[in-house]
């Protein structure tokens, strides 16, 4: 039996999870929430993580009923993400690894999402749509790499939603995306927005600029409601994502789609993707907010796979990087 503890803190979530041979033993998490109309700055986010990380670590061990001696490996998020929060978490993971005398393992955040999704859903070899506040990628596994078939050429889909939420002052609690999703359910009028798919890639910055500019004019003149704008933005963004995912499936001859990342909990995205999959005779796999949103267990799970295939990170190599592409990692644990 191999037990791995995973530290995640690449953005505004700080999570520590423990995995034992595919079983999630514990997965506590905290979120740094800012007032409506504001985003989260790296320095403030890192300060939040520093304040709670030891409490979360204690919770993780207590919920799992384990002692440090029971842990076989300490995994942490190496990147991608925000610099200051990543450094905070890496520092604690390094310290814990040395105090407990356990090997250390730097994990790619994106691969953490994929491996957690595969574990929870039991998807075999899916085309992966990875959608979050910092990333938007369509990925498929081939020859020991997770290959990126399409991606955003500017901002991530979650970033587009979050920044729109700031424009119309939607609450960040529990998350802007969740609150947009609830408001969108009450929207009835579709407002046409720019639809920008370029081959296998998507662009969201133009849509954001357009809706930022148009929102106050349309709302003040009574042309539409905030709910209509939330509905229209979701429909447009998600249609683009379904289109490039379907194209990647056709290219790979795939019959499975796995949605991962924070935006992946959105039930409307899952519904739209489900319609496309049904038309193709394919299967859709998705997880709920416990595992879609950044969490420690996903880093532990990817770390478990890497550790079992013989990988470790030496102390002098245990740096972090804000830019770390999914296809940079050699996938030594899959055929």
From TrEMBL:
Subcellular location as annotated: Cytoplasm; Nucleus
Catalysed conversion reaction: L-threonylcarbamoyladenylate + adenosine(37) in tRNA = N(6)-L-threonylcarbamoyladenosine(37) in tRNA + AMP + H(+)
Task: Name the family the entry cites.
Answer: Belongs to the KAE1 / TsaD family.
Domain Gcp-like: from-to ranges: 29-300
Name of the protein described by the UniProt record: N(6)-L-threonylcarbamoyladenine synthase
* Any one annotated GO CC term: cytoplasm
* Cofactor binding: number and manner: Binds 1 divalent metal cation per subunit.
Required co-factor? a divalent metal cation
Which lineage ranks, top first, belong to the organism behind this chain? Answer: Eukaryota, Metazoa, Chordata, Craniata, Vertebrata
Source superkingdom: Eukaryota
One GO BP on record is:
tRNA threonylcarbamoyladenosine modification
**A molecular function GO annotation:** tRNA N(6)-L-threonylcarbamoyladenine synthase activity
Q: Which UniProt keywords apply?
A: Acyltransferase, Cytoplasm, Metal-binding, Nucleus, Transferase, tRNA processing
NCBIfam families, from UniProt?
Answer: arch_KAE1 (TIGR03722), gcp_kae1 (TIGR00329)
The record lists substrate as bound by: 130-134, 162, 177, 181, 266
Q: Where does a divalent metal cation bind?
A: 109, 113, 130, 294
* UniProt-listed Pfam families: TsaD
Q: What is its EC number?
A: 2.3.1.234
